[in-house]
């Protein structure tokens, strides 16, 4: 059940109240793949510039991430710089330098075209559509996007929605896309445009899985120390898709479990700067966290409510 991700491979510079990084390994496809690979083999399609440190690629390769689809092109790598507020609740993007990412035209290597599980990271929706044209028969396609595309390429994005199974966005993106402030109505608006499910990420408040009949909520893991929220959403997606690919089961109960694996991986992402914690996470630790979620939300309905 091959798992494929297409997205940014970046050099991130991040400032939080607890410290800062410069040109650290980052990017949506990186956070996704380091989370997913704990659960299932993952293949990446992306682009890096001539200045991208080889050791960053080795970090991914050592964890077993398949980088055959990562092109190295002459020019600068994609760089992103952001600063978080004192409570880590919001962030300001200080700089986005596209470099070789500006000309990125995803080419899916022949040996990746049989991917059954596909995650389209946040890139131009036209490119996301071109990826779907290149993969043969995906069983489950999930897709991320961002405000920039919601405004600048709305029509293409709406066209894309007709071809995917799950739209995975954060709550503000769901609101902007639908034009509805209520996140549950926004999710149903999305379902009306094609996807079978919407996953709405809510940061420290967890995430929602919404299908036409049900809503499932997973909390965020109650961490006492959070250092850097960067990549939490992509790590969530990696855990979610990694678990689905590992179990090859799209049943309702399994999708709920996948949400918990997603939230567990998101919690590893934020516990340290950049990918530091994700790159040491073990399957045993992930399972431990999944069991902790079970305790966190378990309760017995009393006789009166039954
Ligand atoms: P998140 O915290 O989940 O929003 O993801 C942050 C990651 O997304 C960082 O590692 C960035 O390198 C990457 N990123 C930021 N802006 C963009 C963009 N415009 N396109 C693709 N990736 C981006």
Structural features, described:
The chain is α/β, with parallel strands linked by helices. 36% of the residues lie in helices and 24% in strands. The protein has a 9-stranded mixed sheet, sandwiched between helices. Strands 2, 3, 4, 7 and 8 form a 5-stranded mixed sheet that branches. Helix 2 links the parallel strand 5 and strand 6. Helix 1 packs across helix 8. It is globular. The structure holds adenosine monophosphate (AMP). Adenosine monophosphate binds next to strand 2 and helix 8.
Q: What would a concise description of this structure say?
A:
The protein is α/β, with parallel strands linked by helices.
Topology:
Layout: E1 3-6, E2 10-16, E3 19-20, E4 24-26, H1 28-36, E5 42-49, H2 54-62, E6 66-73, E7 78-84, E8 91-97, E9 117-120, H3 125-134, E10 140-143, H4 147-152, H5 154-161, E11 166-170, H6 171-178, H7 183-191, E12 197-201, E13 207-210, E14 215-218, H8 232-247, H9 252-270, H10 283-297
This protein binds adenosine monophosphate.
Adenosine monophosphate (AMP) is lined by residues 8, 10, 12, 26-28, 80, 96, 122, 230-234.
Q: What small molecules does this complex bind?
A: adenosine monophosphate
Proportion of β residues? 15-25%
| Helix-strand pattern | EEEEHEHEEEEHEHHEHHEEEHHH
Specify the helix fraction band: 25-40%
Considering the chains and any ligands shown, give keywords for the structure.
306 residues; 9-stranded mixed beta sheet; 5-stranded mixed beta sheet; 10 helices; binds adenosine monophosphate
């Amino acid at each position: 059940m091959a798992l494929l991700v297409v997205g940014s491979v970046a050099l991130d510079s991040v400032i939080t109240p607890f410290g800062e990084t410069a040109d650290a390994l980052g990017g949506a496809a990186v956070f996704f793949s380091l989370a997913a690979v704990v659960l299932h083999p993952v293949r990446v399609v992306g682009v890096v510039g001539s200045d991208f440190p080889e050791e960053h690629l080795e970090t991914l390769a050592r964890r077993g991430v398949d980088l055959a689809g990562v092109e190295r092109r002459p020019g600068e790598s994609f760089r992103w710089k952001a600063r978080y507020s004192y409570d880590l609740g919001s962030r300001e993007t200080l700089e986005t330098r596209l470099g070789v990412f500006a000309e990125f035209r995803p080419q899916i290597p022949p040996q990746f075209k049989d991917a059954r599980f596909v995650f389209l990271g946040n890139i131009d929706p036209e490119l996301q559509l071109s990826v779907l044209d290149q993969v043969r028969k995906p069983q489950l396609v999930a897709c991320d996007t961002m405000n920039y595309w919601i405004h600048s390429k709305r029509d293409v994005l709406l066209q894309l929605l007709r071809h995917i199974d799950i739209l995975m966005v954060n709550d503000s993106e769901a609101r902007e896309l639908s034009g509805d402030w209520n996140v549950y109505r926004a999710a149903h608006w999305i379902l009306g445009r094609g996807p079978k499910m919407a996953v709405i990420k809510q940061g420290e408040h967890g995430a929602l899985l919404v299908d036409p009949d049900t809503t499932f909520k997973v909390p965020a893991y109650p961490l006492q120390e959070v250092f850097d929220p960067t990549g939490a959403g992509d790590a969530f997606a990696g855990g979610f898709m990694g678990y689905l690919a590992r179990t090859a089961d799209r049943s309702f109960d399994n999708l709920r479990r996948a949400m918990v694996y997603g939230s567990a991986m998101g919690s590893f992402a934020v516990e340290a700067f950049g990918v530091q914690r994700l790159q040491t996470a073990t399957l045993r630790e992930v399972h431990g966290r999944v069991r902790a979620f079970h305790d966190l939300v378990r309760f017995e309905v009393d006789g009166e409510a039954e």
